[in-house]
Write a structure and sequence with these properties.
23% strand; ThuA domain-containing protein; alpha/beta; Rossmann fold; 11 strands; ThuA-like; Class_I_gatase-like; 259 residues; nine-stranded mixed sheet; two-stranded antiparallel ribbon
Length: 259
């Protein structure tokens, strides 16, 4: 065999061997990819009420369930405070208090929920979540404030002070909205305010020029997002409010721009 033919044969064999190795690598990567399950985060929506019960709760739950269908998370709703145990809570990436009222957890359940947040669990509060657990200061700081009072439902102007957050970036600088406008007390100074309501645009405001109505912060190991909106059933039909809720969920799940 000539030197030229020998060289060509050697190159051919080398290329075949390289192709085999690449095939093995691709097959291995494909197998590894197939072995990794797609993890869909679970969200626990807690709706227990010991005081006033909002008619919009059921509409709120169904709205969250609808949002989950196209946004890769699962909604599990409960009224049972017994679900606040270690074994159950570890299944969830996020716990949403949807218009809960007054004392909804006993002392052991409070301790378990505190541990959940300390270990990286996340919290989202909607509307009356701030009208909950007044004798548990840790919870008040987690939410960011406690409900104090409210005037009659009416239209008001919301000032969007931070439009970089996932819950607000779809909004203009102002948003005209009809709701029940909470006045707050014991406001946590560490919250990052996203929206405030213009008290000159409605009657009954008591928090002054900077009246927060939605905010977020990190608290003792977890993320917390709160919106004071969501009293009425009609609010949950508003695409802007739906996107506001979805952005809050995404923030709590770590799907913001920094992740």
């Amino acid at each position: 065999m000539s030197f030229k033919n020998t060289l060509l044969l050697g190159l051919t064999i080398a290329l075949i061997l390289m192709g085999c190795e690449q095939g093995k690598k691709n097959a291995k990567e494909s197998a590894t990819s197939e072995e990794l399950p797609v993890i869909i985060p679970k969200i626990l929506v807690f709706t227990k009420t010991q005081g006033y019960r909002h008619q919009a709760i059921e509409k709120g739950v169904s709205t969250l369930q609808d949002l989950s269908k196209t946004n890769s998370f699962t909604i599990i709703q409960t009224e049972n405070s017994e679900d606040f145990n270690r074994e159950n809570l570890k299944k969830y990436t996020l716990v949403i208090f949807l218009s809960t009222t007054l004392d909804v957890l006993n002392e052991l359940q409070q301790q378990t929920f505190t541990e959940y947040i300390n270990q990286g669990g996340n919290f989202m509060g909607v509307h009356a979540a701030s009208d909950t657990e007044y004798d548990w200061p840790w919870y008040g700081n987690l939410v960011g404030a406690y409900f104090k009072s409210h005037p009659e439902q009416q239209q008001a102007t919301i000032e969007v002070v931070d439009r970089s957050h996932l819950s607000t970036k779809h909004l203009n600088e102002t948003w005209i909205h009809f709701d029940e406008w909470y006045n707050f007390k014991s406001i946590n100074p560490d919250i990052n305010v996203l929206m405030q309501v213009d008290e000159s645009s409605y009657t009954g405001g008591e928090n002054g020029e900077r009246h927060p109505i939605a905010w977020y912060h990190e608290y003792e190991g977890g993320r917390s997002f709160y919106t004071g909106l969501g009293h009425t059933e009609e609010a949950y039909d508003d695409p802007d409010f739906q996107q506001h809720l979805l952005g809050g969920i995404f923030y709590c799940l770590g799907r913001d721009d920094s992740n």
